[in-house]
Design brief:
The structure is a homotetramer of 299-residue chains. With 299 residues, chain A is α/β, with parallel strands linked by helices. Chain A folds into two domains: 3-163, 3-Layer(aba) Sandwich (Rossmann fold), CATH 3.40.50; 170-295, N-(1-d-carboxylethyl)-l-norvaline Dehydrogenase, domain 2 (Orthogonal Bundle). In chain A, 49% of the residues lie in helices and 12% in strands. Chain A is built from 13 helices and nine strands. Chain A is elongated. Chains in contact: A-B, A-C, A-D, B-C, B-D, C-D. At the A-B interface, helix 8, helix 9, helix 10, helix 11 and helix 12 of A face helix 8, helix 9, helix 10, helix 11 and helix 12 of B.
């Protein structure tokens, strides 16, 4: 049986790789964290010294990396995938990065007779663990999508075909920009309403059945006491950190500058999360903590 | 049978008054628009020359007025309600106004042994017509709420008890501030995504099943072609105008200044809708037209 | 010799009243702070129990009060100036308040055959002490301006005739809105430049001789070490507090809402200073401390 | 006599190159615009087919290019300077580009035993014509600065030594971000003041002698009639275009993202100029036209 390559065994990638294993895939893996790599070796995986080793051994590769520079290095670096990639290889990148980098790497892959497609994910660590992720896929054509789907469906339950390469990244960036804006908006709205005399649950009740309804209010409301068992109920521990949100908002700003599409709300949310991401009080917390940043100001 | 007073027979109030009539109420009405008043007279209503005439004839009064100064004038003006109000009268105000005015008028009513409560509405002209409005009620106590509910339930299906007087206004202002922010946010997100190469429906599909999900995207998406039969499908005719949104956002800003609660997103949305509300191209359009304002900038 | 009334003997008003004394004026004074009133009594001033006593005793009155509600109370309250004001009285208000209140109080004075003009000040505590203040005067006509100038010139060196009543307030609000925006702008620009590797003094040198030149950079640069002997050189002690700036920016926002003039930068500066004004770390500091708020975020 | 290379003979570069000629330099030039190149040939310059030809013929090269990609192409492209650059060559780049590109190109030059320094300019077309430009120079060391100064001083009167390579770019980006913010701020302040009843000149007079004083108000006030002979007096023709300002503000945003320094005002100014730069009504106008964008909204 042929090998599947997997690069990036972090919070998300680790669970995703294990779901491939559970579904019978044989893996060759790489990560900069040697401890994690040893665990996968103990579970029966082959281990690579460099990304180039993966590409030499496998024609089906999944990458889950933190940011644009990491993707560039893993694919185009000195010991990167493109040094050894075989014609006909399919690279599926589930990182959230600049669309411009996605397009550049895809173009470089095409010159090497291989394919690089973007397949960023939503669903969080729980989704990665339970194989219920959504993959937003920019595969370029239906045949490539079908080939990718066969792998990705082992790690998620929603594999969305968005067409051209780059479109998966675009969709992820857009959704997360909207999410970042909405979380600040819900935080300031709840704080204003409470300052005006309203009970938090009563206000959320009105909003969630009215035109202000949104995920940041009805599923992830950042005011403690409104919704149980989410990060704000545990001191904003876990969840989606302010620095990850700041990073995703910076990708949206880069895309806005490139496309010249005005994003006034997105740029303000970016600034606010940048402030939180650098403040020791907030930087390790879930992004709902923006409510505390605003509330703290009240007497 | 005793008379119910009704002041403000505009787009919303006209339908609401008719629903009271349908449910067997006898009305005495007032409006500055004499043509509309004549219609109600033809339908069997008594007609008042001044708000003071209403208060002299009725102990149950509904008001639906455009803004804070109108409410002050109708209640506290020279021929206003408070000139003739009878002890024990219940005034139900469904206007959307400054909370500070709500509280002042309520205090003045109390000195006259009467009650003034706030009961702003959501649900739009359709809700007013079909008696499916939501009333956000700040009645102060359960007995008053019960008395108000008996009237309001003839005009709506959701009569929410929010406690203290002023709380109905607070909830309405908060929801609409959040709505205004979200509409700009959805507009700029859709425009960015389309600029990045995405199909509008595909992007909306991703958002509506992800963490960016909100009413402004899944029910009132401002991009023509995504959702049928809403204002954006008809050139942004009808719906909720940019100047009404600018007004509601200004109420939120007044509340923010009074309570000193920071509202960075709300203040930016206020500025944007103020710009649209003064521009001949946008001022008479549904508030989703902010999408065209941003999109127009693209080549 | 006739008496001059003086109401509001705070940080600014105290020095201003003393300059009138030095120039030979006989004063009747009022303040809520009884200790301060006793000092003026010891210096030979008559003392009033209420603002109404001042108006009964004097036809030339100066008021220097913290905010719109104080002005309303002192003029229109139960024991206020308008209870006893004599025809022909000239009230000169050096408070910085909502223009709409200025216009209302002026109108009320006119009905009583008296005059109320706005004469807000710039120049700070030092200017008040040394009688070098600038007065921005909205006197309505030249004769009234000349009458006011005779008094105001004993407390300042620049008495500017801006025409209609309300114009002094407008000019003060506009200048301070611009100032608030520029201070945030200089703070974020200096912080960005330093983050990019520049020396603070070298960057200020470039800006101060280029098109970015402004008072907040060349006279009041908020980065410690660039300019000596200003608040930022002393831990941001003294100077113009963040809460005063937040208040002045709220007046600008009220004016923007009333006139429907868009102020995107002013509204963002308002939000930022509101955040600082409520934060225990920043609320008692000079408004240049916004530099520390932004800088603190850097690693 | 040795040749000086000159690449980029546009609005600024053309005048700068002619000032080198006037001062006795012999030039070899390159531009994509062949008509302009022919003019310089007619004036006695040598002409190059590619940037590489310049580097082969000259060890002293000035470049004045529109944006980061142009600089990359001219230096690092297929027929670029670095293909033929001689050890000991000094490249002086007066383009305004991303600091990160400046640093990358400088590093590449160093590997080739050559020097690339940044020397962006201020002073506009008039300054270029009259050799009164300011050069903000990041030369890295005093010897290199002295060598650059000998050339740059033939084209400007202020050659500022800012130290490390990249610092010239940083200073230019910072100044122009501050300028962009201030122009919007002055425009909205003037519009607000006029809406409140003030005469434009009277308001400018107050601001220019108060703490709101800045270049955008006292030298380049965007309200027609306040200052003669600047672009706003001629329908905003000429001057510094909205699209150039949008571009410079995008460089500031890129720098903010890279350094993680929060720039709330800068990001809002960026969005506003991006909107203007894409609007047919404003895109070809001087950046003071933001006043008309805001004013137009008034009834």
């Amino acid at each position: 049986m042929s090998l599947t390559g997997f690069i990036g065994l972090g919070n998300m990638g680790g669970h995703m790789a294990r779901n491939l294993l559970k579904n019978g895939k044989k893996l060759i893996v790489y990560d900069v964290n040697k401890t994690v790599v040893e665990q996968f070796k103990a579970e029966g995986c082959q281990v690579a010294t460099h990304p180039a080793d993966i590409a030499a051994a496998s024609k089906e590769i999944v990458t889950v990396l933190p940011s644009s520079p990491h993707v560039k290095a893993v694919y185009q670096g000195d010991n990167g995938i493109f040094k050894t990639i075989q014609p006909g290889t399919l690279c599926m990148d589930s990182s959230t990065i600049d669309q411009i980098v996605t397009l550049e790497v895809a173009q470089a892959a095409a010159l090497l007779k291989a394919e690089y497609i973007d397949a960023p994910i939503s669903g969080g660590v729980t989704g990665a663990q339970q194989a219920t992720l959504t993959f937003m896929v920019g595969a370029g054509n239906d045949a490539t999508f079908a080939r990718a789907e066969a792998v990705l469906s082992l790690m998620g339950k929603n594999i969305v075909n968005l067409g051209a390469v780059g479109n998966g990244t675009a969709a992820k960036i857009c959704n997360n920009m909207l999410l970042g804006i909405q979380m600040v908006a819900v935080a300031e709205t709840m704080n204003l309403g409470i300052s005006m005399g309203l009970d938090a649950k009563a206000l959320a009740g009105i909003i969630n059945t009215s035109s202000g309804r949104c995920w940041s209010s009805d599923t992830y409301n950042p005011v403690p006491g409104v919704i149980p068992n989410i990060p704000c109920a545990k001191g904003y521990a876990g969840g989606f950190g302010t620095s990850l949100m700041a990073k995703d908002l910076s990708l949206a700003q880069n895309a806005s500058t490139n496309t010249q599409a005005p994003t006034p709300m997105g740029s303000l949310a970016h600034q606010i999360y940048r402030i939180l991401a650098r403040d020791p009080t907030y930087q390790a917390k879930d992004f709902g903590v923006v409510y505390q940043f605003l509330k703290k100001q009240n007497v």
